[in-house]
Fold each of these.
Amino acid sequence: MPVEPPAPEFEPSTPVQYLPGVGAARAERLRRLGLRRAQDVLFFFPREHQFPPPPTRVDDLREGCPATFIGKITDAELVSRTPGKSLFAAIVENDSGAVRIVFFNQPFRAEQLIFDRIVRLSGSPKLAGLRWEFTHPKYELIEADEADAESPENKGEILPVYPLTECVKEYELRRLTRRVASVLAGGVKEVMPPSIRADASVRLREAGIELVGDLPGISTTLRDIHGPPSAEALTAARTRLIFQELFVMQLALAMRRTSLTGRLQAPAMPCTAKIRQRILRRFPFELTADQNRVIDEITREMGRQFPMNRLLQGDVGSGKTVVAIFAMMLAVASGHQATLMAPTEVLARQHYQTLSKILADSRVRIGLLCGSLTAAQRRETLEQIASGELDLIIGTQALVYDIDFHSLGLCVIDEQHKFGVRQRVRLREGGVDPHYLVMSATPIPRSVAMTQFGDVDLSTLREKPAGRGEVHTYLAVDSWRDRWWDFVRQRIAEGRQAYVVAPRVGNESVPRDPSTESPDDLDELTLLDEVEDVTSVSRTFENLRDNVLKEHRVELLHGRMKPEAKQDVMQRFADGEIDVLVSTTVIEVGVDVANATVMTILGGNRFGLAQLHQLRGRISRGVHAGYLCVFTDGEGSPEDSERLKVFEQTSDGFELAEADFRLRGPGDMLGRKQSGLAPLRIADLNRDIEILQVARTMAQELIDEDPGMQAEELAGLRDQVLRRYGDRLDLGDGA
Ligand code: ADP
Ligand code: MG
């Protein structure tokens, strides 16, 4: 390539059309990639890099050794003797000689590999007579320009690979980005002070990132990402860009968190040793070390006059509710009200019963607010809440958001596995915010917790209370059916109870995300979702009742039943008057019967991982081992089988959540409204989790020390934070 003189003929703001070698037609195609100005090109980062071997000359080809060969097609011929049998052969030639390529029974090759085109081949050649021959090589048609022996593609250099649209060619873009980087990279202003880069480098290495020396300055970084001189330089450049992107995001989240807690007021409810003792005495068991630790985290925050905003995550049965009850009792002991919102009425009633039992013979007054109250009952309850006669209010989310509280100190939201966009409770004129505690049984993958939930504090229960039954999970094939039902009947004969979960109907294997709707619609939504399933569950029920389970007491439960009917069935199941409950996923959120240890899931391929895990949680509640058998519809996709295999092999909710995230991405886990974060250009939350962790820690430390990022040397970084996240996260200029 001829050496060109330095060309100061363009600047960051130059439209791409006027960049060397672009012109109007290419500019139009570049615009489709979002590249309008030279600076866009400079910051258009490669998706990955390739390390292609340089092409081989004919004399250097070796029998059976993989090689790349570039040349022009100088002869091509398709021979077809009998129908369905053909041979395509072509000669590919360059200045070092010629090779032959052959394809059997692939006549369409003749349409691609035509006379005079230039092609890059790769494969293992063998000597056929005097000529090297590649059978079924991989190939790519290229332009003359790219075939040039001096081009980066042919010198064994590391090649950036850009995310492209159809109409832009990789090699064209490579030339352009290199050129732009060589002219403009030197002039880009550094926003990350050397001290931050040096500190980050040390921590990244401690976190296991392979990094030689410090994170490079921005000019070197931009030059190296588009044209890496070595693998080390490439790693350093990539790491710097990934770190910077995540650091800027984490700074924004840390700023928001700090400014939120600084602005809002909540009642301080310190937990003294005496109060703690009094509350603990109410539980019929010792708390686990994990529960005690999490209670410490929570009470420490409730003792401050800023609202807590905390997510408590832990598997089904890990004892979250007990922790929440502790927090609610602390609120009441401090003279405030507390509320517990459940996603369904069934759950609300269950929480109400649990609390009533624990607080029997205490002075704490508990109220239940749910859809099946009469108008008069409801009016009375609301009055008691407003006047402060009730201390603890349990209810469904749809109702509780509308209440006027007398003095709400703590709001606990039991979301089971559903994360939603959360409304805040109504505040009285001049009232202060309550503390918030959200419980979730589907652990959030670490990376999601650090990004979408970046301004929420996290408490995690990993240890389960002792004596939890183990669940054996089997992924069944159809031929097991008879044997499995035998097994179910035996367990029932031993006195155990069983669940049968009917398949969902339709292709939607993932539960609809209610967070995209307003919480007021939630109850109705749950019902709508089940319309179709009702036919399916009824059919399953009749079939089992009349055939394999005809000796036993079988009952049906689904979300379309009247609340009293539902309640009645659940109560009789809990009392052991029903052997088998055939149900839709309504049991996923709710029923807590320790004697039920056998579960059959039909059409398991139609359920999401989180949901399957929730279902399994229903049979790990007692001292007896649980047995779960999952049947599929047969027509499951490869992703379905992958998911089910993970489910069979893993019983840890945290591992499952990470797997779910890998298989499905974060999209399905979160409400769309909630992921209000800018799309990432180069970082990948799955892959770059270690870098994310370092960025988060450093961002929080920096903001703790300098909440407004006012230090002179942080001006550039602060600009970037506000430009990228100011509007989205409502940081405001003063932050
Ligand atoms: P989660 O809300 O996480 O599903 P719960 O708080 O409902 O879990 O606890 C599940 C079951 O375990 C309940 O029956 C509860 O009484 C019991 N439990 C909770 N903590 C303990 C403990 N420390 N020791 C023994 N049993 C416990
Ligand atoms: Mg619970």
Amino acid sequence: MCGIVGYIGKKPAFPILLSGLKRLEYRGYDSFGFSVLDYNPPAAPKPFLFKKTGKISQFEQEFPNPEGEIGIAHTRWATTGAVTDANAHPHFDCKKEIFLVHNGIIENYQEIKNQLIKEGHKFNSECDTEVLSHLIEKYFKGNLEEAVRKALREVKGAYGIAVISEKDPEKIVVARLSSPLLLGIGNDEFLVASDPAALITRTRQVINLDDNEIAVLKPDNFFILKEKPLVQIEWTLEEAEKKGYPHFMLKEIMEEPEAIENAIRGRLLIDEGLVRLGGLDSVQEKLGKINRLILVACGTAGFAARVGEYMLEEYAGIPTEVDIGSEFRYRKPVVDEKTAAIFVSQSGETADTLAALREMKKKGVLTLGITNVVGSSQTRETDAGVYIRSGPEIAVASTKAFLGQLATLALLTVYLGRQRDMALVMGKRIVSELAKIPDLAKRVLSLAPEIQKLAKKYKDYKNFWFIGRKYNAPIALEGALKLKEISYLHAEGVAGGELKHGPLALIDENFPTVAICPSDSVYEKMISNIEEVKARGGPVIAIATEGNGEIKKIVDDVIYIPKTLEMLTPILSVISLHLFAYHIAVLLGKDVDRPRNLAKSIVVE
Ligand code: F6R
């Protein structure tokens, strides 16, 4: 999500860090910062620190261009703590001697922070990362890597970090766990970066740091705790920005398992069958008394909300309704003090969703946000909320954020369900199944070559139906929307049971249907709908559960997804539909990342 660059060598570090950070701008960020050490023995090193919210270009004239050959820099995309100068990286310790940049999430930061405060540490920010600089300070006895090693033993979560200190100045210490870091091996210089784009112009020789490894970069050498092979980067700069994928959309689909992982990380209490959602702590008691939920969103986020409606009614037992922002703002919804309104939005800036939120606030309703962009209007204006933590989504069509929204709605269902009648055993079942979902999602992604072949077979059809029932009825809508918005083909989504009430009239051999029919409680009903289509000569692609050999006898093609709990099947089925839409659009030569007539964030009515 965020970006890291570090430099140590013989050249002034600042311009190199600046150009590295600029190469990370494509990922999106809300704040940035640098720290540079001027180590000129015997003069005492003077650390320089500059961090700001906003874009680098806004401040370029103000940069003092500090001296020093050692430095670290960061672009932040907020996940814990608002978008403020203080929350930007680098973070530092009480004495401002240790500076650190971090990508990832420290799950147990609150516990560590409470303990460090008791021990006398003074904090400057709300950001989870700051605990790392204070922990390193606590263990620092003259050797920085030793202090980093001891500090990291105490943290849970994910990190890629780069640390410098004026008290052990001729080095950058870096470490990783579940967050990528590369060491760049140059001529008389070493770099560290979270993304090859940041170092590709200085060196193509890199070492990928592995989980739990710590490396020390010095001006003339480096060491890691074990031997690692050198690798040559072959990517162009543009390819590097897309991590080698031809489009941001494909990169983001490939990040869907990670988006689910990020949404659930640190939030599942498997033994207790509970979910921890820190963002709802302040309204926990109020939520216990709520007896009606209204979910409001637009487009793809609206389809996530519809899946949430099925989850919340079935497992939390709360009457729930969903509306789209553009309609809800003109309704006169009847609400009372026991109603809560939940707004689902990737950007947190969608005008229609915000208008609905403001209307609900006027009526005194408890408002919650399920949002990706930290510090967005939605997060500032709701009473409380949960971040989906999907990272920046650059392609216009939403993909990985949809997965983050679905996973977060499943978490919310357990949270609210366990406040009510959901039994421990059911809580445990959902939570432990959710923990497995990222791996199952990776299995769906491994079908990409097969789905690409299907896309070749179907790309010349001009019309498509997408059908599904119950949890997968909204996924039929999402499959159709994704296909139409990036390929410009005509695609409609409809609940399977509605076919015979009209849409069936369109079916013939030129109108294929994508039928989402995992082996769940409505499987038999879906088979009847598929038979209705086949009887009229319509080709059918089924999304079915692995092991269902029978379905091959009825349909033309099958995409198999792994088995999971019925309420979580949308998470797996939709990944195959995102891939299907993507490949058809690419085969038709469309600009998949920037479809015509659309924008990423719809900030007008
Ligand atoms: C479709 C898509 C849009 C958005 C919608 C809401 O691929 O991206 O339908 O989902 O405009 O946007 P957010 O989630 O930012 O409120």
